[in-house]
Automatic annotation (TrEMBL):
Gene3D superfamilies: MoaB/Mog-like domain, MoeA, C-terminal, domain IV, Molybdopterin biosynthesis moea protein, domain 2, Molybdopterin biosynthesis moea protein, domain 3
Species: Sporosarcina oncorhynchi
Reactions catalysed, as given in the entry: adenylyl-molybdopterin + molybdate = Mo-molybdopterin + AMP + H(+)
Segments forming domain MoaB/Mog: 185-323
Function according to Swiss-Prot or TrEMBL: Catalyzes the insertion of molybdate into adenylated molybdopterin with the concomitant release of AMP.
Family: Belongs to the MoeA family.
Protein keywords: Magnesium, Metal-binding, Molybdenum, Molybdenum cofactor biosynthesis, Transferase
UniProt-listed CDD domains: MoeA
Enzyme class: transferase
EC number from the UniProt entry: 2.10.1.1
Pathway it works in: Cofactor biosynthesis; molybdopterin biosynthesis
NCBIfam families noted in UniProt: Glp_gephyrin, molyb_syn
Required cofactor names: Mg(2+)
Protein name according to UniProt: Molybdopterin molybdenumtransferase
Length: 418
């Protein structure tokens, strides 16, 4: 008798996966290796930024009071007492009607409280004249206007991007505390599988899931250990799964999770004593996605069908990996889009449609990326997003508003909502 599985809602499945995520701790890396990692400690301003009042322009530093009454008819003369380039200091305090020539980024000299751009002056042998009064503080970049010493700037759990690197460098972080990145094992199961460079022979297909998962991990900058392909043989598959689990922090298998005679993953989980979190999700594709846990490590039994495998990774495995690193935005960003083509299939389960989105003059349009069965490989290649069609809906028409999940974005969101 075939086992009847009870599907759980997608949101519940994601919640269960995230509940079983374990952190691997933190490590210190040089700043030049920190891009793409996840911050393990918050960035707190170690000093004010800028650390001193400075000039935002190339021009003259003056006392604002000396410009009072200046006009086109009454140009105010100033005497230049020296020059300050960025990185240098003016050693004399400026006196009445005196000015320093000052360059962008240079510290404002003593007594000066305004900067006049070169373009606002007429220069002469002695200095310059100007034709308008300046307020105290005008054209001064004030110490601490960007960051105040002690201010919490970026939370732990944030992905480090080029802007984060700039901030870390500003505060002198030559080394950064980041989350340890998991090593993920990948095993493609299926007696029908050939290597990429094999000739097709009757009944066989090339393994596309293995290379696809490797690329999905590469896109996240996560390292992996590939265990290649295993034929549908219980003992051999159990041996490889056990070995892979011992050598990695998480294992992704593809294929063999449904109810077929040679779908051995359920038996392998049982043999190993792994706890099955779920083995059926109310979604299409990927309803057979199975997740188990053993000794604190997650085993993702992704479907063999390519579109289901891809979707299972993006929905469950990717947030779990980010969660293992304490990532605070593990879920794909979501956007509203206008459906660019009819999609008339009813949706008994939540449907995730591989699609392609673009900005148009009338807004964001998302168009399904062609043949959209669970077994499809072409629509994964053509898609750049996933349209989410809620369960219980009866098909959608061109012009309907839909939600889309963005693929390959370094941005993410903190909550999963459906
Ligand atoms: N009686 C039932 N049959 C099936 C059910 C069901 O509920 N009852 N579920 C169907 C659904 S939904 C899916 S999805 C598939 C899932 O199958 P498995 O995850 O067990 O995967 P396999 O049987 O091993 O393979 C399915 C399909 O994918 C191809 N495949 C497998 N590995 C790869 C790979 N690495 N690269 C490319 N393609 C691969 C494989 O040849 C099969 O065509 O089960 C349904 N059946
Ligand atoms: O597990 Mo399947 O992908 O719903 O067709
Ligand atoms: Mg199967």
């Amino acid at each position: 008798m075939v086992e009847i599985r009870k599907p759980i809602p997608v949101t519940e499945a994601i919640r269960q996966v995230m509940e079983h995520v374990t952190h691997l701790g933190t490590e210190i890396v040089p700043l030049e290796n920190a891009y793409g990692r996840i911050l393990a400690a918050p960035i707190i301003a170690k000093h004010d930024v800028p650390p001193f009042d400075r000039s935002p322009y190339d021009g003259f530093a003056i006392r604002a009071i000396d410009s009072a009454g200046a006009s086109g008819e009454n140009r105010m003369p100033f005497h230049v007492i020296g020059e300050i380039g960025a990185g240098l200091l003016g050693d004399k305090p400026i006196g009445e009607k005196e000015a320093y020539r000052i360059m962008t980024g240079a510290q404002i000299p003593k007594n000066a409280d305004a900067v006049v751009m070169f373009e606002q002056t007429v220069e002469n042998e002695n200095g310059f004249t100007l034709r308008k009064p300046f307020d105290a503080g005008e054209n001064i970049s004030v110490q601490g206007e960007d960051c105040k010493e002690g201010e919490l700037l970026i939370e732990a759990g944030t992905l480090i991007h080029p802007g984060t690197i700039a901030l870390l460098a500003t505060f002198g972080y030559a080394f950064v505390e980041v989350a340890i990145t998991p090593v993920v094992g990948i095993l493609s199961t299926g007696t029908e599988l050939l290597n990429v460079d094999d000739e097709l022979v009757p009944g066989k297909i090339r393994n596309s899931n293995g290379p696809m998962i490797r690329a999905q991990l590469d896109r996240m900058d996560i390292s992996y250990k590939s265990y290649g392909m295993a034929a549908d043989e219980l003992d051999m598959c159990t041996f490889v799964v056990e070995k892979a689990l011992a050598e990695t922090d998480m294992l992704i298998t593809t294929g063999g999770v449904s109810v077929g005679d040679y779908d051995y993953l359920p038996a392998i989980y049982e043999r190993l004593g792994a706890k099955i979190l779920f083995n059926k999700v109310a979604m299409r594709p990927g309803s057979v996605t199975t997740v188990a846990e053993l000794n604190g490590k997650l085993l993702f039994g992704l479907s063999g069908n390519p579109s289901a495998c891809f979707t299972g990774f993006e929905l469950f495995t990717r947030p779990a990996i980010l969660g293992m690193m304490g990532g605070t935005n593990p879920y794909m960003p979501r956007m509203k889009a206008i459906l660019g083509e009819d999609f008339k299939k009813p949706n008994p389960f939540t449907r995730f449609v591989r699609a392609s989105w673009e900005f148009t003059p009338t807004g964001v349009i998302a168009v399904p990326a062609g043949f959209n069965k669970s077994s499809a490989v072409s629509s994964i290649a053509r898609g750049n997003c996933i349209i989410v069609l809620p369960s219980g809906t009866r098909g959608f028409s061109t012009g309907d508003e839909v939600d889309i999940l963005l693929l390959g974005s370094e941005l993410g969101v903190s909550e999963w909502t459906l």
